[in-house]
């Protein structure tokens, strides 16, 4: 389909459904990781993964920044009919992510113990986290390159291929989790190995597309300097800021949780992150699918169509939020039991206290994600970054330190919902300012 001319609802669902299914595949793989680790390794395993999250957030965030920023630029070139320019952007992006990922992961691998000390891991967590990270860091470069390929495959009109790659990666992860953790009893090392091997799947499935006859984007000689890639990265900076902010916020939450509730606090926060991930990844899949659509329509100056796509995304993410709220309010204990053994009473109680408040976040986070993605695709990176920073760093950190003074421990559990509410107000103001509906006038 030509996304600048075909029926709006058909385009929206053709792009959003594979993207959502792909995000479900990714999140389900992580959730299955949590299930196996929580039930067969225990609280310490969940805590070790969570203490490592800031490292993963930084690396994944950089890959997203390059992917989103460059693919939006490439998509705009395709919309303008400049196919060679689009291929140059693609080729330079692959070179950039390859060099950065392998060099950075090598440096991190050689300094794992120091890194974990800076992240606040105690002796017990350090031992387990080293076992996990020493494997994951070997494979993360392949994931980062795979993420870039995933975005460019979708810009190149192959959203279903991107979904298949994500789905197979998730299925392989689940199978290997069972094999490594349950059958071979390799514990946290097995979980890391399963995740790492599954990440190679993205690369193996997506890379051949760019050598096929169906590809619009090709590997070409990367002529000229890399200034455009740096500028493109700035356009995707909100995704980097969002991921890094999540990592920093997790670090701060870990500090507060371990201080107030000991290791059970970090384990409980990990479970809450899994619950948040389910809804957020679906909404992220919807909002993320908009970027290739909007960037091409933006290049073709089809502003009225952009507005219609956004309306469909708002409706879809709101429905996702309602479903998540119903699940959390009606089945909180059942959800907690998925990740925790029967005798983890203290951890379960902390999770249940969290769920009393966390459901409010789902009223607003879907709309926040859609508006942030829309602003990135419309080449408004600063506005998009404001939303990303607000929901993932500024307000969560502000509220986790201020609300406990007013509401005691409940203030910790209220921090994330309050951050989404305030961000929602900011996002609506920015959306009204940069509304595509007004650009035709």
Key features of this structure:
globular, mainly alpha, 441 residues
Concise synopsis of the structure shown:
By secondary structure, the protein is mainly alpha-helical. Helices cover 83% and strands 0% of the residues.
Q: Care to describe what's here?
A:
Pfam families: MatE. Keywords: Antibiotic resistance, Cell membrane, Membrane, Transmembrane, Transmembrane helix, Transport. About 85% of the residues lie in helices and about 0% in strands. It has about 450 residues and is mainly α. Helix 2 (about 45-80) packs parallel to helix 5, helix 2 crosses helix 8 (about 225-235) and helix 10 packs across helix 14 (about 365-375). It is globular. The protein starts with 7 loop residues before the first helix and ends in an 8-residue tail after the last helix. About 55% of the residues are buried.
Helix content: over 70%
User: Uncertain runs with pLDDT below 50, 5 residues or more?
Assistant: none
Distance between the termini: 27 Å
Number of helices: 16
Q: Spell the H/E element sequence.
A: HHHHHHHHHHHHHHHH
Major beta-sheet overview: none
Class of secondary structure makeup = mainly alpha
Give the SSE map.
Elements: H1 8-40, H2 43-79, H3 83-109, H4 112-118, H5 123-155, H6 159-183, H7 187-206, H8 227-235, H9 237-261, H10 263-299, H11 303-330, H12 332-339, H13 345-358, H14 365-377, H15 381-407, H16 410-433
Helix pairs in contact: 1-6, 1-7, 1-10, 2-3, 2-5, 2-8, 2-9, 2-10, 3-5, 4-5, 5-6, 5-7, 6-7, 9-10, 9-15, 10-11, 10-13, 10-14, 11-14, 12-13, 13-16, 14-15, 14-16, 15-16
